[in-house]
Amino acid sequence: MAAPLSAAVIVTPNGGTDTANPSGTYVYGWEFNVNSQITVDHLAIYDSGLDGLAESHDIGIWNPAGALLLSATIASGTGTVLDGLFRLVDVSNTVLAVGSGYVIAATNFDVDLMRVNASYLTIGPEISFVESRFLDTGGSLDRPTNSIGSLKYFGPSFTVIDSSTAVPIPATLALFGLGLAILGWSRRNKRS
Predict the structure, then answer these.
(1) What architecture does CATH give domain 7-191?
(2) Where does the Ice-binding protein C-terminal domain start and stop, copy by copy (predicted)?
């Protein structure tokens, strides 16, 4: 097992405009494929002005079969961590296996803005963007099934553990245990 030392926002939109949906009852998100196994450790919401969120957002990730894998609520205000353009909330580490058809989505974009029609995306190599999605859910967190077409809408995102900088925990514990054993042995030999 590895302990995370760093994480990176998996998708960052560039270009485009910021907009809200005044109806407030829609869930917006995007579909993606996982190219190599990843471990999600935070869910994230776009913070247009980098000045906090006007309202809380329920956010979740669904697997290709449509089952909700993880979800959280990102609180309004500035109390959550800001990483680049996104407010983060910690979640239990969740492994996403290689596969097609994962979906991430979030609620409440009637006041807080999302990035629309991004001209290009900064995407981690672990995933591929498929399309943006929406659904009128009455405000509840449900998997969006309607395609937005060629437009790219981004509000929700997530971070993954950077496996290239992970430190193996068993080796760390073994070294700590060895250090304690040597310390105990040296103290015992000094008394003799």
Answers:
(1) Sandwich (2.60)
(2) 166-188
